[in-house]
Amino acid sequence: MLLGIKLEGWLTITAIILGPLLAFVVQNWRDNRRAHKSRKLEIYRKLMLTLKVPLNPNHVDAINSIPVEFYGDKKVLAAWRLYASHLNHRSEPGDAATRWVERKFDLLIDLVYSIGQSLGYEANDKASMRDQTYVPQGYANVEAEQEAIRKAVLELLTGRRPLPMTMVGSVQVEKPLPLVQELAVPQPAVPAALPAAPNP
């Protein structure tokens, strides 16, 4: 007995004080764990949705989030390192570039498969990821066209591509063409001023 309180009383006081605190700590730990798993699932979801459209910003965000969210997962990080290393070593155009693109897709499938296994998606296999992902041909066309436009504009701005021009109409070579008279631009009509209100 201490301070006139029996052992059972001290245990009750301790439980009253520590019970809510321990419940808060456990709940906070569970919430953090649930949020962490939710972020991992979001990465997996984004990668599954953008497997065949790697220039999509969601795809790039998901790839760059892997080292943070899967820290400590050796299999996922090993697959991510292989994929990132391959991305950072581009090949020259031609047959080597085609092989590089094929290898890139294989490594991406390996990475997404590893993430799925880590999250408990045992039923997903590499073959279904590779062949059963639907991407409209229009997406691929738009992506290819945007890349072609970007390259052409860059070549034009850096002077590696000429700007083709076509003359329309007759061309006069004996003497210069007369200057075109400046056209008068019609001015908008100014509304008539309203009469001033009479002073009271």
Q: What is the topological layout?
A:
Blueprint: H1 7-49, H2 57-69, H3 74-87, H4 95-118, H5 126-131, H6 137-157
Helix pairs in contact: 1-2, 3-4
The geometry reads as: elongated
Order of helices and strands: HHHHHH
Q: Share of helix among residues?
A: 55-70%
Going by helix content, strand content and strand pairing, the class is: mainly alpha
Number of helices: 6
What is the makeup of the main sheet?
none
Low-confidence stretches: none
Supply Rg.
34 Å
**Tally of strands:** 0
Q: What is the average of the pLDDT values?
A: 78
Distance between the termini: 97 Å
The percentage of residues in β strands lies in: under 5%
- The number of domains is 1
Describe the structure.
The protein is an all-alpha fold. The chain has one domain (7-157). Helix content is 60%, strand content 0%. It contains six helices and no strands. The protein has helices at 7-49, 57-69, 74-87, 95-118, 126-131, 137-157. Helix 1 packs antiparallel against helix 2 (57-69) and helix 3 packs antiparallel against helix 4. The protein is elongated and about 120 Å long. It starts with 6 loop residues before the first helix and ends in a 43-residue tail after the last helix. The mean pLDDT is 78.
Task: Output the keywords.
200 residues; mainly alpha; 6 helices; elongated
In short:
This protein has 200 residues and is mainly α.
